[in-house]
DNA sequence: AATGAAACCTGACAGC
DNA sequence: TGCTGTCAGGTTTCAT
């Protein structure tokens, strides 16, 4: 569900709320889909680390971790007595199995600790909650980080398209659409026979643009989503370049779009959906010319456009 | 190499 | 009420 503006909103909210806190212990559910790294890699990278910051890369949320100054004894292996086991039937996992594997064994007295990052991709339905430890555990909760402040950071994801991993130097691939310059933007689409809509969704080119903002950007640029990327004129690409940045910035300013289940970490909804000009408006009148908005499928994704305004 | 279709999951909603 | 079919803001995998 979340695209760049939603992930940016969520990352900013998390940065405000959990930066400086320390991960005391980690619980992971039994479903395997959400984990891209092994459970022990994730637990080992997170436990007893201080959250130095939270930021966005493409649609990924990156937690920068550093060794906690107040490193304590490893948390008790028995875990922390859950009041209610999530409906999925998950159980407690190893608490500190691979704790500090790289630092404890190497015995290298260097003072530059290895970088550690916790990477979260929300997929379609993923959410990160910051809540009190006693708050009820929602169905589809796949990970819980108990924080030294007494709160918990929880990953909830019904559809399980989200992914958790740890890394030392994560690279999301692609280029940030808000940072790219015109020449590099134009070069991305050069010689590509794929529809421009599909190229915009390709995270190896631009990272962070998703279905809503691709449609909205193409509408503002006056380009039909099925046009071959290579067939688009320089002038149109310049308009698209501006439109993509404009749409993303406006959406971030409004806290993202929320249509059904997206809410930010405070539980507040974004408001950009009120600005949608084509997305999810099939059959409704184009706000510019009044023609009915069309919906077609491109690369398996529904695509909305105005046949009169977009060529 | 690039493109497109299918697969991966659950939940919400419309229609019968 | 309950069943069926469709759809969903994303990515990966597997044939062409």
Descriptive overview:
By secondary structure, this protein is of the alpha+beta class. It is built from seven helices and ten strands. The strands form three sheets. Strands 1-6-7-5 form a four-stranded antiparallel sheet, covered by helices on one side. It is elongated and about 60 Å long. The two termini are 28 Å apart. The protein binds a DNA duplex (16 and 16 nucleotides) through residues 1-3, 6, 33, 59, 121-125, 140, 157-163, 192-194, 198, 201, 203, 210-213, 256-262, 279, 299-302.
Please describe the structure with a list of short key phrases separated by commas or semicolons.
alpha+beta; N-terminal domain of MutM-like DNA repair proteins; Helicase, Ruva Protein, domain 3; four-stranded antiparallel β-sheet; 7 helices; 10 strands; elongated; DNA-binding
């Amino acid at each position: 569900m979340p695209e760049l503006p939603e992930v940016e909103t969520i990352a900013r909210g998390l940065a405000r709320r959990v930066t400086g806190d320390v991960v005391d212990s980690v619980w992971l559910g039994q479903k395997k889909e959400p984990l891209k790294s092994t459970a022990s890699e994730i637990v080992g990278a997170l436990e007893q680390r201080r959250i130095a910051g939270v930021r966005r890369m493409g649609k990924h949320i990156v937690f920068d971790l550093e060794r906690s100054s107040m490193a304590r004894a490893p948390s008790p292996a028995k875990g922390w007595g859950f009041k209610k086991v999530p409906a999925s039937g998950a159980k407690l996992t190893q608490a500190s199995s691979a704790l500090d594997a790289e630092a404890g064994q190497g015995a290298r007295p260097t003072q530059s600790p290895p970088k550690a990052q916790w990477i979260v991709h929300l997929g379609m339905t993923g959410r990160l909650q910051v809540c009190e430890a006693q708050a009820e555990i929602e169905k589809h909760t796949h990970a819980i980080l108990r924080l030294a402040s007494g709160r918990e950071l929880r990953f909830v994801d019904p559809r399980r398209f989200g992914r958790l991993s740890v890394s030392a130097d994560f690279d999301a691939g692609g280029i940030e659409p808000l940072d790219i310059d015109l020449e590099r933007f134009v070069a991305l689409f050069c010689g590509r026979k794929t529809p421009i809509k599909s190229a915009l969704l390709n995270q190896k080119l631009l990272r962070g643009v998703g279905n809503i903002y691709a449609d909205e950007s193409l509408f503002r640029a006056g380009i039909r989503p099925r046009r071959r990327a290579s067939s688009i004129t320089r002038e149109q690409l310049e308009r698209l370049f501006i439109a993509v940045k404009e749409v993303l910035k406006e959406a971030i300013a409004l806290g993202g779009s929320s249509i059904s289940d997206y809410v930010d970490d405070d539980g507040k909804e974004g408001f950009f959906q009120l600005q949608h000009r084509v997305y999810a408006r099939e059959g409704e009148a184009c706000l510019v010319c009044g023609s009915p908005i069309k919906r077609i499928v491109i690369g398996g994704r529904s695509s909305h456009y105005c046949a009169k305004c977009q060529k």
